[in-house]
């Protein structure tokens, strides 16, 4: 197509012969600062182009329209892609039809060479660019001397810091995008094209949509149950016409219990089944044996140089205990402090409301009328400020903890923010449920929360996008006449950056919380959530494809910390449900009427709770986390690598070592007898 | 020494030249049935001696004094040992000083060839003998035709069934034994020679003694605390002289709480630290990467022949789901039934006691006097019968579950018996604590139980052994004049077989139970246990060395199911402790005097319990299960095997294959570029 033709000329030369191909498709766009000198741009392009042994990124660079323009288009030659695929530990389909950890030396035995997905290719480009380190002290042409690079400095970071590189994002592939969007949200098909989502957007996003899908479908049973209960409670009411309140309580109890116990087991089974699905997905997507901890540490990672005992490479090292110490003595207290602030805010809010009420009762005037809203408004403002501050604090804290792997860094950030946000959402509900012990209020609150979130979601995720799209697509159309590619790229760079999956996940988590923690007081929860998620899937898909830049997404093997969060929640749900059952109006009435001794009731509840938790644990242990066939495949891989290790003579005498230096690592780890034979060849 | 000289002649020939050595030390004794024909014995010896490719065991056999004698002494040539060492996945010290999974091809790079410990060698002999399968249908000379072997029959099992082989046990090595016992229990040293215990008796026994050691030392803190509390409560009492009962309650509370909370955290920290110790032991003993699941299935394992998807070997296969089904539908219900019977027995016992009491009160006579003891006597008999029946049932059930690995078989048997025994021990205490809610009675019961177990242990484990030893050692002395080796062996075979570690472990578990579950009602528990264990270590060691035959012990990586049992217990302890605190006299009095609302107290207790459990979980998660340096070593191994796998071309074109045949496998596993170079060399 036109894209290729245009971009053919002007690309830097590939270093190795095997990578020469007639088409180079642009993968990543790098935007430079406005007043970056041409020589600097040339230098960067050269850096990107030159092979890794010369300290380059071994990628392909294109200066865009003219040498002075502020963009660089980056692509990757085949060899670099394959080597990185091996380094990241991705699995690919072997000639035998199984997934095998990809090996560069063995590349011909893997099915078709185009298997590196777009998302992976773009991530690899990012990985290579951010991995480039200065091999000696050098100064960047066209930059002032205070930006000279020391040995082993991370060049990309320095350039960002110097404002030379202002932006970097992967480019959409319009053809693939079109196909994807048609298969995803245009039609009214039920199933999502998860595999192509994974290959286009990457596994982290693939996992999110798979989970959303799985979660939505597993909402069916509770939804049906909820409907049934709601129906019966209503009919029950119509028969013996009491006052609504009494009825609500009277009938609710039956439903209550069923709902509570059901939702407790449902949540466990749901999570266990998801784990199985997740592991089979990660096998299918080749992320089962990611080798992140064996790869280079993340750019931000610091420490004094040393030999990594695991890989034997020279890289910055940072002792584990130091990290743990920092977590224990810094992170934990700070997070605790913020949680405290949330509680404080809530208490002040309640206190304020009480004050205002009194005031209003004393002199009932318009002013006091207005004043009634003051506390809630202030509280909302307070909470939002707190949240934004906390986000940055969490980021800083995790930077300070200095994690080696990107994934663990992400997990720790997420975990911190997660705890806070969750607390923020649920503090009020817990306060009502456990402290005020006011079930009707809880029911009202929950219903309103659910409906509000519904509306808010629909608006923010469907209506707004639609409106935005109106005029963005318009501008797209305007541009689609054959004007240079570069403008198209510029257009993409005008789109807002993808905010990440946090907000999406937290939304699901909060939903799940409403459902598993409190649903028994409001049977229709599941139904509302089901409806919401059905639209959610589409709107999220639409957002991903149209409204944001394409995000980088690293290959991941599972949902990471989110999985844990959901599991924890499903255990907390047992406690809250038992408690709510205890508070259920009928039992309360029995107690007040003295038919039952409240202490014994309480004891019973505690007993039931313990048994249920025990059952949940047993259930969780009994349902294996991965399907049998995955286990077999994994063990097969382990067996093979064990065999490989055995049939290999690892340590070889020094002399050989030195002689073999110029042969690649895969030979160096070989040796002994073999080393000798090779030496013969090298000498002769 | 004499042993070698005598046993030199008469051994079967070694098949491979490299194994010829001037000394063969006897490892295992096989006892044949009385009326086994000489030809049968010859056939068996031939079987043991012939190499594996001819369906033999590739071991060395010695017919004992004369060909018609009823014993066969078995030893193993070096090659068989090394191959088995590799197959079992044992790690050994590499020339680099690190532990590496042993590889036969690379054997020269491992430190001294004598590293296969005695226990391992003896286990390997057992492993090889029990692994021998008939390669074609054949009939054993001197046996009736109904014992003909089908293809792939397990020969050893058949011979046992036919009564040809009545017994098989490893032989003591008197010299090593002497050194060991001197270092172990003769002197009054504190530390045990755990490494030599492991190398002489094997890792499973090594782990038991390590755990006993670790456990005993970690009893110090609670013991000190207990003493302090006891002391203060007494002094407290002497000051304000109340009636003992009131005091016990009054003062107990303070100690109570401290003790309870302390023991809860102590148990967690103890278990976590043990896990770390255990993992470093298993690294040190080379059992970190046991490859049992990749080895042949256990002899008892049945299923229809198929290709194992993991190893690609042809062997009996049995679907996982079938096993799970059998567990769920057969094992679980049966176990439940027996637990039910225990409870039933207890209830009947209480009922009976009540009846007898009444009877005695009505007509107080000598007969009724005697009758008073009837219930307890009957109950004891009942329990014992139940226990013995259950043991066999558990064995049968696990056989029926048909586990592939020996270890998982053992774990499942242990787990079943464990649950039952534990229930048996604690049902009464729990009944008193939770149902009768009678703390003083609980205290009395606990004290008496502790002291009784003390006495019973001391008697059974020190006095009896001593007496037995008196005359056994006497007979030994009588025999020690230079009469043939064979009689020495016969003497060993007269010793009782080692009953296994179950009773030892369960004793520790029950102790641990008393301590963590109920200690807060009887502060001196820890002290008593500490004293008991200090003698326990010695008496157990003595037992192992002198009073039983040397047991076979397979290499294991940890305590298996026992670890789980201890952990579970430490969680249950939270519940019981909180409950006991709730029952503590002072609080009870407060409630009765109406100073406190019992419901609120209860709520508080529940809250505290949940928080404590949460803290325990957090603690258990935070303390990593293996020390940092072990983690690094493990990851290093993983990394190396990953590398090995990558640098290996599994499917290389035939021609190359053939050309490279004469080069060793370690070249074949290399490939790609390198493969080419080597080929060039071969051609030129």
TrEMBL record, chains A, B:
Q: How does it sit in the membrane?
A: Multi-pass membrane protein
Which one of the record's GO molecular function terms can you name?
chloride channel activity
Query: Where does it localize?
Result: Membrane
| Anoctamin transmembrane domain boundaries | 197-635
Q: Which residues form a coiled coil?
A: none
Q: Which residues cross the membrane?
A: 214-237, 257-274, 327-351, 371-393, 413-435, 512-535, 556-582, 602-623
Known InterPro entries for this protein? Anoctamin, Anoctamin_TM
> Superkingdom of the source?
Eukaryota
Q: Which GO terms describe its cellular component?
A: plasma membrane
Q: Which UniProt keywords apply?
A: Membrane, Transmembrane, Transmembrane helix
Family recorded in the similarity comment: Belongs to the anoctamin family.
State the name under which the record lists this protein: Anoctamin
Q: Which gene encodes it?
A: LOC115420447
């Amino acid at each position: 197509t036109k894209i290729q033709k245009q971009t053919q000329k002007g690309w830097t030369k590939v270093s190795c012969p095997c990578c020469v191909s007639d088409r180079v498709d642009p993968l990543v766009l790098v935007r430079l600062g406005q007043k970056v000198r041409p020589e600097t741009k040339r230098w960067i392009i050269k850096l990107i182009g030159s092979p890794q042994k010369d300290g380059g990124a071994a990628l392909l660079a294109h200066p865009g329209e003219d040498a002075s323009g502020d963009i660089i288009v980056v692509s990757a030659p085949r060899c670099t892609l394959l080597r990185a695929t091996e380094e990241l530990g991705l699995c690919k389909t072997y000639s035998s039809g199984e997934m095998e950890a990809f090996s560069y030396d063995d590349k011909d035995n893997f099915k078709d060479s185009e298997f590196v997905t777009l998302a992976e290719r773009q991530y690899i480009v990012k990985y290579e660019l951010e991995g480039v380190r200065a091999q000696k002290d050098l100064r960047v042409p066209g930059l002032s001397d205070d930006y000279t690079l020391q040995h082993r400095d991370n060049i990309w970071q320095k350039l960002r810091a110097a404002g030379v590189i202002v932006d970097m994002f992967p480019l959409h592939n319009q053809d693939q995008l079109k196909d994807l969007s048609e298969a995803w949200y245009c039609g009214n098909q039920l199933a999502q094209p998860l595999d192509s989502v994974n290959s286009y957007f990457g596994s982290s996003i693939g996992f999110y949509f798979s989970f959303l899908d799985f979660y939505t479908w597993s909402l069916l049973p509770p939804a049906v149950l909820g409907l049934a209960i709601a129906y019966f409670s209503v009919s029950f009411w119509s028969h013996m016409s009491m006052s609504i309140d009494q009825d609500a309580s009277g009938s609710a109890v039956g439903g209550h219990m069923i709902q509570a116990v059901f939702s407790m087991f449902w949540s466990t089974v749901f999570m266990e089944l998801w784990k199985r699905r997740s592991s089979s997905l990660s096998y299918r997507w080749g992320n089962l044996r990611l080798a992140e901890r064996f790869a280079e540490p993340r750019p931000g990672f610091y420490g004094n140089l040393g030999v990594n005992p695991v890989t034997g490479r020279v890289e910055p090292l940072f002792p584990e205990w130091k990290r743990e110490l920092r977590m224990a003595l810094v992170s934990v207290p700070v997070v605790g402090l913020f949680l405290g602030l949330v509680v404080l805010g809530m208490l002040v809010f309640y206190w304020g409301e009480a004050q205002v009420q009194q005031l209003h009762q004393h002199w009932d005037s318009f002013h006091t009328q207005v004043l009634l809203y003051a506390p809630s408004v202030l509280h909302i403002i307070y909470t939002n400020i707190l949240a934004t501050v906390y986000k940055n604090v969490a980021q800083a804290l995790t930077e300070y903890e200095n994690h080696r792997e990107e994934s663990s860094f992400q997990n720790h950030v997420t975990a911190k923010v997660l705890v806070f946000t969750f607390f923020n959402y649920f503090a009020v509900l817990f306060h009502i449920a456990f402290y005020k012990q006011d079930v009707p209020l809880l029911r009202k609150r929950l219903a309103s929360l659910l409906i509000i979130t519904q509306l808010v979601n629909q608006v923010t995720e469907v209506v707004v996008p639609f409106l935005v799209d109106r005029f963005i697509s318009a501008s797209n159309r305007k541009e689609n006449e054959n004007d240079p590619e570069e403008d198209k790229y510029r257009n993409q760079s005008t789109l807002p950056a993808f905010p990440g999956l946090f907000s999406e996940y937290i939304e699901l988590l909060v939903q799940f919380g409403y459902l598993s923690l409190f649903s028994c007081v409001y049977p229709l929860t599941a139904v509302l959530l089901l409806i919401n998620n059905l639209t959610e899937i589409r709107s999220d898909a639409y957002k991903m494809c149209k409204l944001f830049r394409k995000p980088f997404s690293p290959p991941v093997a599972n949902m990471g910390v989110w999985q844990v969060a959901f599991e924890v929640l499903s255990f907390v749900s047992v406690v809250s449900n038992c408690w709510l059952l205890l508070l259920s109006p009928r039992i309360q009435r029995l107690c007040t009427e003295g038919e039952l001794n409240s202490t014994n009731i309480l004891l019973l509840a505690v007993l039931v709770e313990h048994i249920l938790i025990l059952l949940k644990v047993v259930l969780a242990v009994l349902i294996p986390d991965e399907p049998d066939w995955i286990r077999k495949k994994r063990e097969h891989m382990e067996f093979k690598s064990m065999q490989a290790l055995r049939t290999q003579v690892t340590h070889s005498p020094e002399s050989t070592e030195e002689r073999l230096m110029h042969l690649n690592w895969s030979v160096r780890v070989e040796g002994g007898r073999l080393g000798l034979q090779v030496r013969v060849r090298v000498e002769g």
